[in-house]
Structures are given as C-alpha cells and as structure tokens.
Design a protein that fits this description.
1 helix, single chain, mainly beta, globular, 10 strands, eight-stranded antiparallel sheet, two-stranded antiparallel sheet
Length: 131
Amino acid sequence: MDYQNLFEQFDNAGKLIVPGTEISFADIPWSKHPTFEGVELKHIVTSEQTDGQFSYHLVRIAPNKKIGNHVHKTQLETHEVISGNGICINEGTEIKYEPGVISILPMDIPHEVTAGSEGLYIFAKFMPALN
C-alpha cells in the first residue's frame, strides 16, 4: 500500500462532514508548531467548534525532526499513524510508529515523537480540546 499517497488523500481530498456542513481539508492551512522545528499542524476540528470538548489535527513531522518531551496536563491525546515512520516515547516506553499504529497518551504523562528518515504523518486527537 502507498501510505504516502494515503496521507496526501487525507490532506488534499479529506473532508469533515457533519449535518449541514462540509469542510475540505485542502482549505485548511498548515501552521508551524510554535515550539518544535520541522513540525506542522492542520487544525481539522478546533476547540471553538466543539465547545472545548475535543479537537482533531493532522500532524506532519519532517524527516528526523521531533516533537520534544512535553506533557498535556489536562488532555488525553491519541495518535493514529497514517504514513512514514518514527518512535514515540510514551510514559518511558518506546513505541515504533508505522502506518496503522494507534497510540494513547494519557493526560499528565511525558511523551515525545521522533520522525524517521521518511518523516511522520499522524492524525492526533485531544480530549478535551487542545487550545
């Protein structure tokens, strides 16, 4: 399976559909992560849209770049690996990230993600929403 193409389908042809609304992912801009170099986010569902209940984000990590060790004090986070490869350190345990892996990162637990040589493409979800 061509996983890189799968991520491009999410990015370019994906859409959020709820009754009365359809939002094309292609219309949502990428934004640079405020802290981590080589990391970009596409905010698919935001806190404002869900009254703070949850948020969804496409995450693109450039080859050999990382989201350094950090904690979300009040959010449970999940990662669905769409494409690429890498390593996640979750609660001190190393998890190999490859397409099809789903990882759960409990609130207030240190974690980090490092992309491999292909880069890493993740669908991240936060409950409650990431602000």
